[in-house]
Amino acid sequence: MTKVRQKREKVTTRFQMANSIETTPKLITQSKALQLKQMAKQNCKANNDDKLAKSVLEHLMFSYDRKTVPMAKGVDVKVDLMVQAISSISEMTASFTADVFFSQIWLDPGLAFENITKCLANLTLSHRTIDDIWLPNVCFQNSKSTSIHSSPTPNIFLMIYPNGTIWVNYRVKVEAPCELDMSSFPMDVQRCTMTFESYSFNVDRVRLDWFETAVIIDLQGKLPDFELTRYTWQKQQFYYPAGQWDQLKATFYFRRTYGYYILQLYMPTYASVFISWIAFWLDPKCLPGRVTLGVSSLMALTFQYGNVARSLPKVSYVKAMDVWIFASMGFIFFSLVELAIAGHVDKMTKDCQEETLEKKSKYYRREVSSQAYKATANTNEVDELWKICYRDSLGDENISKWPKSKWTAEKIDKLCQLIFPLSFICFNCFYWMYYTMESSKKMERLMDDTNFTGGSFL
């Protein structure tokens, strides 16, 4: 009997020890909670929030599990975006670079401390704490590169409210894509987008939506060659093999400011075309000077076009700049064609007059007193002498009354002095009206999306 009693006492002792081991964490938690409440009352009076915040955080993290989603039904995450600066838009990479403040707000009941203390309005924590809590893992889904600013520490803001609401804000540099369309360059409109989604969780676990003030524009400085005209935001859903994901999209619309290209491209082009027309006012006999003007203008235009084209992507379609350059080359080329035609007509006119003079001089004879000259003179020299004598006898007034061709080099030049400027003016009116209207229509087509909300700078 004694042995049996001893065995029973041992079993009872082991059972009591096991119970004490299981209840120890609970007892510790309860005791810490009691100590925390007592400290909270004291700190509220002493106004010592730092110690209280540290104690509250230690208490929350003691039993917190960051590996599981905070709520079984999933978490609703609100997102907002504040654009601080847009540093560049690159045609070569079809992307734009922006500095943004990216915020996420969600409810995590496991981090609520309103039942622990009423003294703290919130917990503002270091960026190092971000690794100790559960995150919805919202990412820039279409970014080419993303980096968190460090100046000198990572720019991450973390705040926990008493009811467990988490507010995380990142200051990020993002390179995102643009839908490059250079057909109206340099009067083009570009659309660039940022897309957000949870990388790890579908809609069963994380549901994304925009905050009330979804996108805020607070640009510091201006882009040298673009201006932000409009911006929109929208929510859509995307299906992957792993399920359905919420996607948030922010779209930015940019219009190019083409003042630089007017100075660097259009004004030199105007000068080249106008210089080529000076040949119309020069004497048709001054062929070397007229040729030099036309060829120099064409070479200058080609060189100018090459300088601008080197800074643009190699697209396979025709741009507005190409239309302008080739039309200007056409005007200069046709001025050279006119030079050739005028030179040819001038030569034909001279040949015709010489032929007429030769025929009429056959019927004219003058007595030559020196028979010896007749005998010794060359036949060609005699013919030329008859022509000179005949021309002298008629005088300039009679020669000018001879029938002439309808077209002469002078008439062609005068006609081109009128046709070329008028044609160039008509081309300019059509060109600028068409592409400015096309730019506005392009903006309307890009904005023709459904289910979006946005703002405008116009």
TrEMBL record:
It holds the Pfam family Neur_chan_memb. It is a multi-pass membrane protein. Residues 54-257 form the Neurotransmitter-gated ion-channel ligand-binding domain. Gene3D superfamilies: Neurotransmitter-gated ion-channel ligand-binding domain, Neurotransmitter-gated ion-channel transmembrane domain. GO terms for cellular component: plasma membrane. Keywords: Cell membrane, Ion channel, Ion transport, Membrane, Signal, Transmembrane, Transmembrane helix, Transport. PANTHER family: NEUROTRANSMITTER GATED ION CHANNEL. This is Ligand-gated ion channel 50. It comes from Loa loa. The lineage of its organism: Eukaryota, Metazoa, Ecdysozoa, Nematoda, Chromadorea.
